[in-house]
Amino acid sequence: MRRIWLIFSQAVTVSVAVLFVVATLKPEWLTRPPGLIMPEVVPILTAPAEAATAAGRGHAEAARRASPAVVSILASKAPQRNPHAGDPWFRFFFGEGDEDAQRQRGLGSGVLVSPAGYLLTNNHVIDGADEIEVKLSDGRSAQATVVGTDLDTDLALLKINLDRLPAITLAPAASLQVGDVVLAIGNPFGVGQTVTSGIVSALGRSQLGLSTFESFIQTDAAINPGNSGGALVDANGLLVGINTAIFSRSGGNLGIGFAIPVDVARQVMEGLIQTGQVTRGWIGVEPRDLNPEIAEMLRLPVRSGVLITGVLRGGPAAKAGVQPGDVVLKVGPSAVANTAELLSAVSALAPESKVQLSLQRGQQSIERTLVVAQRPAARREPAN
Predict the structure, then answer these.
(1) Catalytic residue among 67, 72, 109, 124
(2) Alpha-carbon gap, residue 1 to 367, rounded angstroms
């Protein structure tokens, strides 16, 4: 014990001596530098882990539900065969050529709408392709066959043969409103599945020149090349539309995208599955929107409706006595104010059914009853 006490006393003595020397020769070593500020302890409020997770999730649940049903589509077609390809001298000078390297390939998206393997996409995504490969988000891939196409709406129905396929749930018709939050899911620029968000900017957009029947959903959710055929879903992950086009001056997204409404897509899908075609009514007229200027020029008492500029000879309208210059005001009980509404109302009619047209002919209001025919299938424009 005495030895330990001596060691302790010696250590204290040495420490005091060192402190005395430092205080005498280097007193600044014992003072805090003026630039040194001791850190302040600031209280921070932190939410519980489960609350933070819920707040940061946003639309993750909707994306989680819908994303597995959105697929990537690689459509390819062989180049046109050179008529001289069989000539041995041609092959000698120009070679055999690698046909696989020359295949034209296009990227797009699609949406699985049935566990049986049916999927919707845009017709322009697979148009002219002789090979269509579908890649799922879980890494699987399969070759797809074309069940049918509908040029009037730019929709195509494909089928793949795989098990355990995730199918999206379709939203009820007319459930969407302007201002609703929507997500666009697809494969833009081939970078892989991508989710973007926005709102519904407008409904019933028409006269865009994109297809015959136009009643598009407009959204500011980013839609870029490769998104065509992908899903537009609501905040619950339900399918409300098929992304189809963008308005752009540069080819990139400008915040104006268009999607085909889910009720139109459902009608096309059911028609293609059941009969291989979409059955629509047709009356054989060439319509044009009636504007106030034309109405004034023709001295008509109405300012809205659809002006008939041509009537097909022998068609349903011609047989019923409809004439060029007539203005269609109603199709059955439904009023029509523009060409899009007339096409929609007529196409919803069953072939061989009868319908009454309310017309304005000059200063006279007249009625004509006609027998609806089936709309002829749209024809492809010949390639240049």
Answers:
(1) 124
(2) 125
pLDDT tens column, 204-242: 887 777 777 788 999 999 888 888 899 999 999 999 999
CB atoms within 10 A of CB 361: 16
Same domain, 268 and 287: no
Contact at 8 Å (CB) between 226 and 109? yes
154 is a catalytic site residue: yes
**Calpha distance 66→116 (Å, rounded):** 17
Mean pLDDT of all residues in 45-62: 55
127 is catalytic: no
CB atoms within 10 A of CB 72: 22
Is there a domain that residue 335 lies in? yes
Active site residue 59: no
User: pLDDT digit string (tens) for 279-315?
Assistant: 889 999 999 988 888 888 888 898 889 999 999 999 9
Q: Are 268 and 157 in contact (CB under 8 A)?
A: yes
**CATH assignment of the domain containing 233:** 2.40.10.120
| 21 within a domain of the structure (yes/no) | no
Q: Catalytic residue among 67, 109, 150, 154, which?
A: 154
Catalytic residue among 67, 109, 211, 228: 228
Residue after which a domain boundary falls, among 278, 298, 313? 278
Structural domain ending residue among the three candidates 245, 278, 311: 278
Q: Do 242 and 117 share a domain, yes or no?
A: yes
